[in-house]
Specification:
Rossmann fold, 7-stranded mixed sheet, DNA-binding, 237 residues, homodimer, 9 helices
DNA sequence: CTTTGTGAATAATTTCACAGCG
DNA sequence: CGCTGTGAAATTATTCACAAAG
């Protein structure tokens, strides 16, 4: 068991998929699960599942498979979902509200700790029990319960200034849903999501579907929304 | 100019990024742009940009760069954004509304052609001028203006049945935002987006930031939300 | 007899480095 | 000269195939 301490990025990108599947399986009482089953559910092939899981350690039992709840706990640990990550969301429009309510934002490791907007009619109302604060009070509010992750769901024009205030407030990781390339200093982890990139990838495949009948390579395991960010987004030291 | 007629999937995933950057550049009056500039904005390196663009043809001018508007038109053509793709969105909650209003869903190739929900208080109201119809009328409504792409933004529990109705209605491509693995027949292009996957990837990097100071490989150009889908999602012939 | 874990083989992607064109 | 376009090299990711464990 060599246990490489460097997990390939491609594997990291798939761990959340396995995590979610295992959550469902454990929830519905599954005891053990094979790489074959996981692979079918994830839409990948079984050796990829085994290879991915082998980077975490040897948690399977030959002849029977993986114990679902134990495997889940190992993946959670590897993904850092056994920590508590307070998440602040700025921009409580439709998208911000959707994020605040998304199961993935409110369970297993993540806790929506603060909501901000500038619209007077929003400030003071609550989403899932959390009061929306005015962005003017951002620094003050986050001081008491410093968020680990900042989510930007503002109009594009406001995104950069929000990012700067997040950085100023010592937030080390930013998830950016605004369609705007952001500059952040080295040391800040920035990831951009563009909701429409998948639409364009679909458009590509639709308009090429007649040429050469090969199934699109990314079909089963989709490459998700991607948006370029200024090349500054790495974790320091 | 060999002009490989098979564009790597990794390149296809980046074309929307270049597309969006070029839109901005053209909008702000830029005439020519170098691979170096595009690379800096996209957060990738210059040879990757040149390699990516070379799959579309030789559109650059040595010594000066690429003519922004011409390059944009070539990328649009390659991505199929010169077609008109009617998009039907089912589930007009916060997420559905956010999608209906997203710039990427309403410009360049895409046209939100129909909105569906089951909530009586929503049916009849309009989002960006498009009336929300009751899901019961789905088949009838889409018959008159058949959507090329169906977007599922419903609660997880409803996603599968919506997918089946879309397939029945001859929709060949589905973009699924529900956190639920969907089964679709071969021939239907299915892509899943999970809004929280990036959050988990961030969590991974945050909780590993102390070990070995290497910048996370996916930092500059983020791998986006990904969710496994049942292995059925390919375009036929 | 089943299913994991993993080296080895293959394939895809990225990066390098430079010839060649404007 | 400056910058593209692209083979070749390096790196990363996937798949194969099978020995070993339960």
């Amino acid at each position: 068991m060599p246990l490489n301490r460097r997990i390939p990025e491609a594997t990291v990108a798939r761990l959340p998929i396995y995590q979610r599947l295992l959550l469902e399986l454990v929830g519905s009482g599954t005891g053990t699960v094979s790489s074959e089953q996981l692979a079918a559910m994830a839409g990948v092939n079984a050796s990829k599942v085994r290879k991915d899981l082998s980077f975490l350690g040897s948690f399977g039992t030959r002849g029977s498979g993986y114990e679902a709840d134990f495997l889940l706990s190992q993946i959670d640990r590897e993904l850092g979902l056994d920590h508590d990550w307070p998440v602040a969301i700025v921009g409580i429009g439709n998208l911000g509200r959707a994020l605040a309510n998304a199961p993935g934002f409110t369970s297993r490791g993540f806790r929506v700790s603060a909501l901000f907007d500038v619209a007077p009619e929003l400030v003071g109302s609550r989403v899932r029990g959390i009061a929306i604060r005015h962005l003017d009070d951002f620094e003050e509010e986050v001081a008491s319960d410093p968020p680990a992750i900042g989510v930007i769901a503002t109009p594009a024009a406001d995104a950069q200034s929000v990012a700067e205030r997040m950085v100023q407030a010592e937030i080390r990781a930013i998830l950016n849903f605004a369609s705007r390339v952001l500059a952040v200093p080295p040391g800040v982890l920035l990831r951009d999501v563009d909701l429409s990139i998948e639409l364009q990838v679909i458009s590509f495949h639709l308009s090429h579907r007649h040429e050469a009948g090969a199934p699109p390579a990314g079909s089963q395991l989709a490459m998700g929304p991607v948006l370029g960010s200024l090349g500054l987004a790495h974790i320091e030291r």
